[in-house]
Write a structure and sequence with these properties.
The protein has 327 residues and is an all-alpha fold. It is 73% helix and 0% strand.
Length: 327
């Protein structure tokens, strides 16, 4: 519990710093006047007057002072500001409205389900497949099976994920008609639409994951405790599964940290090509429409999830190796 509380205390200033940096990038580098001028200029295709800029700022809530509001008194002098209303409010999951008027929190709540339907199975199955293949290659280490597996993994690493997306859509969906090319169904029939994206995600990452885990397990299998266990007559399969896999969990846990935000945020490329109305496609649409209210919210959510992922990884470290708790 003490270890967990220390990690929580460490995370608080980090989250505040991420929030402050996000605010600075979106409101100090690109000021509200710049946002108004950009949006109004795209719509009107002409010079934008200062009155139109001020009206746009008022309608979108960007007319407040940045950090201190001299028009207010008391605590409202600090709370009735752009920083509190647009930045600190995100800690309460109050993301405001997009430029088209839709509530961002409602859109996130609706779109996170399709993203999770793809990301969670893809993550779990990829981890299981990569670990299994890595252990299999270590079992056949220095044999032709190992060399062939490493060669195939390197080949898969060299191929862009876009190739697997287009190839899967053409072969499995268009030619063989095993599954839909794109789209999504929120009902029970929705598994047909997520099956191909999940398969593509697994295949696109199988080479990188297998090679990485193989190198981790090869380093473990050469240590003294493995030779001691082997000398006592323990089978090679039990050594790989019970000893090598368990002692190699810290590097495995480290690689999963970067995946945690994607479990919620979705995949930009996959969701765009397969027409999945998830959070990844939401970010792409916001970038195309230059809706920085949505982009700012998604950047903040991704940052928070990454920090929380680091906390969960530290806790998992302590479970895998009790010596970490002393750090």
């Amino acid at each position: 519990m003490a270890y967990f509380l220390r990690r929580v205390v460490y995370a608080v200033p980090i989250l505040f710093g991420v929030n402050l940096l996000t605010f600075w990038l979106f409101f100090m580098v690109n000021t509200p006047d710049d946002l108004a001028r950009m949006h109004l200029g795209l719509r009107q295709q002409k010079h934008v007057s200062s009155e139109a800029i001020q009206q746009w700022k008022i309608s979108h809530g960007y007319d407040l002072p940045v950090f201190v509001n001299p028009r207010q008194t008391g605590v409202h002098e600090l709370t009735d500001t752009l920083f509190v209303k647009k930045s600190l409010a995100m800690f309460e999951l109050n993301f405001g409205a997009a430029d088209d008027g839709r509530d961002i929190a409602t859109e996130i709540h609706q779109r996170m389900v399709p993203s999770l339907m793809i990301a969670v199975p893809a993550f779990l199955l990829s981890l299981w497949v990569d670990l299994s293949l890595a252990l299999l290659l270590v079992w056949f280490r220095n044999a032709w099976q190992d060399r062939l597996g490493v060669g195939l993994a390197t080949l898969l690493m060299s191929i862009s994920s876009l190739f697997f997306i287009i190839g899967g859509q053409f072969l499995l969906a268009r030619e063989w008609r095993w599954m839909p090319v794109s789209g999504f169904d929120p009902g029970w029939d929705g598994w047909r639409f997520v099956l191909l994206p999940v398969m593509v995600s697994i295949l696109a990452g199988i080479g990188r994951g297998t090679r990485w885990y193989r190198s981790v397990f090869l380093e473990e299998i050469g240590k003294d405790y493995v030779r001691t266990a082997r000398s006592t007559g323990i089978s090679e399969v039990r050594i790989l599964v019970k000893h090598v896999l368990r002692n190699g969990m810290i590097p495995v846990l480290t690689t999963t940290v970067s995946v945690i935000p994607l479990l919620f945020m979705g995949s930009l490329l996959t969701e765009s090509f397969f027409g999945i109305p998830g959070l990844g496609a939401y970010v792409v649409d916001a970038l195309q429409e230059e809706d920085f209210a949505v982009v700012r919210s998604m950047v903040f959510i991704g940052s928070v999830l990454y920090v929380l992922g680091l906390m969960l990884t530290d806790i998992a470290y302590s479970a895998a190796d009790p010596r970490v708790r002393l750090a």
